[in-house]
Design goal:
This protein has 173 residues and is of the alpha+beta class. The chain has 3 domains: 2-44, no CATH class; 51-118, no CATH class; 127-167. Helices cover 53% and strands 17% of the residues. The protein has 6 helices and 4 strands. A hairpin with a 2-residue loop joins strand 1 and strand 2 (7-9). It is flat.
Length: 173
């Protein structure tokens, strides 16, 4: 059988082919047909949005160890909620999207967002804790890479035997 979108055509396999080849062809055609049917099923499904909900949250001092410079920030409790019809929202946006770099908040701006909410001593303490976590992560990554290098260098059979003998305590080689 050969599947065409919208219709199904059945063709007979010539009788000269051996039965194993026929079975393989049938399995292949069956899988192809099934994946095409699933694909067509997904194409028929549509998702539509009718409204956009925007939640405004306060900015608080965070604890994200991936913040490389300045204080980390995160969202706090909800302050405000606004709903828009999707068409109104798109008209306000005028199709503009921010790039990846525009989504990043510079360290100076994060300091300004936290100014007056937290004492500088607390901000400095959080930054030093994050630096300490980053050091531990780098040390951990170093040891993983070192382990991988050692393990890869012992890729010969003799090296694997030595490792297994160390585990069992057998020193006879």
């Amino acid at each position: 059988m050969i599947y065409h979108p919208g219709r199904m055509v059945v063709t007979k396999v010539p009788s000269k082919m051996n039965t194993l080849q026929q079975k393989m062809d049938e399995i292949h055609i069956s899988k192809t047909m099934r994946s095409c049917m699933i694909k067509n099923k997904r194409e028929d499904q549509k998702v539509q949005f009718t409204k956009v909900d925007i939640y405004l949250h306060e900015v608080i001092l965070g604890d994200n160890p991936f913040c490389h410079e300045g204080p980390p920030i995160q969202i706090g409790k909800q302050i405000e909620h606004t709903s828009f019809d999707i068409d109104s929202f798109e008209a306000l946006r005028r199709g503009k999207r921010r790039s990846y770099l525009q989504l990043s908040i510079p360290a100076q701006t994060r300091y300004q967002l936290l100014d007056g909410k937290y004492p500088m001593k607390e901000i400095t303490k959080v930054i030093s804790e994050i630096k300490e976590i980053q050091k531990r992560q780098m040390k951990y990554i170093f040891y993983i890479q070192l382990y991988q290098k050692v393990f890869n260098s012992m890729s010969t059979t003799r090296g694997v035997q030595k490792i297994s003998n160390l585990d069992t305590g057998d020193n006879n080689m």
